[in-house]
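Quarterly update from the structural biology core.
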Amino acid sequence: MVDVGCRTRELEAALSGRQVRYVGVDLDPAAGVVADLGDRLPFEDRSVEVVTAIDVLEHTDDIHRGFSELCRVAREHVVITLPNPEDRHRSLFSLEDARAFVRSASGRHGWG
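Predicted structure, tokenized:
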């Protein structure tokens, strides 16, 4: 699993004891892989079973490109969360807009 925007790797700790190969990706050098979601992630197409981006996309300059990059790398699952806009985050779109966005962007990568 690849955890994009891993920050302090809390997800890795939560997965402790499970049979999961964890790779943290972040701009911070403490990550296992230093990379920017706004650029191409250093993974082959469809090379990772699960890719996560927990409260990450709202911090990118191009949410569409970022999500597309997550879909490019993932083979089976992309797990994203978007924050509640009332929690001082940028409001990107409504829940219905988010669903339409995910369906459209994931469809371009063969996700049904």
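The mean pLDDT is 86.
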